[in-house]
What we know:
- The protein is globular.
- The chain has helices at residues 2-18, 46-56, 59-67, 75-88, 103-125, 134-148, 153-165, 176-191, 198-207, 211-214, 246-250, 253-260, 351-355, 376-383, 385-405, 409-429, 433-448; strands at residues 218-221, 230-233, 279-283, 286-290, 294-298, 301-309, 313-320, 330-337, 343-347.
- The chain has 17 helices and 9 strands.
- By secondary structure, the protein is of the alpha+beta class.
- The termini are far apart.
- A hairpin with a 3-residue loop joins strand 6 and strand 7.
Amino acid sequence: MVKKFFAVLFLIFIANISYGFERVYFEDEETSLRYTLRDYSFIEGYNQMWALVAESDNISFYDEFINKDFSSMPPKKARDEAINFIINYNVKLDFYNKKGNFYYPVTNSLVLQNKALLKARKVLEELPIHEKTSLVYLAAGISYLKSDGLYELEKLQQIFKEWKRLGSEDFKNIKESEKQNRKKFFTYIANMKSSPDAGQEFINIISQNYYNALFFKKGYFDLFNTKEYIAIDGNEISPGKNYVSYFTYNIKAEYMDIIALEPFRLDISGKDVNHYFSVWERVDNENKIRDNFYIFPFNKQTFVIFMDETEENYIFKLNYYNPRYISKPEFAEVIVSKIDNNVKSDILWSYNHSRGRVVSPMTSEPSFVCDNNISNTKMAVCESFTLRMLDKISSRKYYTLYSEYKNRLRKRNDLSKINKEFQKKLADCQIDKKCLKLTYESYIDSMINF
Length: 450
């Protein structure tokens, strides 16, 4: 009897060291805007635009996988299909020759692609314990890397640590010489210290030539670090313009004073906001804008990288975009020698020190939660970065005024009337984005003049 007892314990021990028990699917991601398809049927011609984007992006490949029933499959077959899907996944994003409202179907295309990766991880999560091999964790880790690099760093570290514990197995089609490089790369991610410094890891990634896997030209990212994902193409969309510059073209400088708590720099005429989201270059005694850039998602934050080179060096400029630090986006500069790969760096401010206060609590979220169970009016705000930012700014300004006048009954009542009138007008707009934008602007102007 005692022998049988120890035999059972031994089998349990073997099972625990042979199969994975860490998670690869996390429910908190289900309600993220990253995985939420939006209803754009109110946009004129949306269905026709969607058909064109769906054809060019081969949406059926992702759609079929999302709707496939894996529960009736043998576990091994389900596992292999999910892993193969992840291996063959590449982000599809076609901005070329598409203007105006094509941005909306392109956004839904990216959401659908992300949902497919999420579904693949869910299939892997639901496998019986004996099917959760090292390759399951490798595939899950790669699915995050392909989607948005090191944005979900803590989850990635759990996944790759489990991959290592189970034997660091790699796929059969990978060459032996490449397997060692991949093992070193995935181990680097697994062993990164908790609460890592973005500037230092940025330097490490460049020094160890990992940037091809962790810097992105296009995709779906929380670009302005406001938990609002937008479709991004790092290539120039039209002369002098890309989707990063969109921020300053849509929000007035006097509004951003409210949220940044410091004056905005204006151009020489004192009217327009300076171009914060591109690098200026002096050519023939004129300022030129270089609009090509890379995205570096890292530990729930997103950085924008501009790369330049001289005859002797590669120069990487790391910027961080967020309303709280709008006047000082430059985060770090790294220079890599072409001759001996020597790295020189200049970290301009401390990431660890700044991360917790990037946006004040009043503006870190909109004044309501963005999910599927909200009104059309609120969903319209969630769908638009500009409207979302106007919501944050108005919340901030109202809070500031209320704090100042909370002990003065008449002033407080006058402020309350402005707020109630705004809420009524906002509700009357329904999902008309132009109406919503004008209503927010009028509300903020009223509070500025209060």
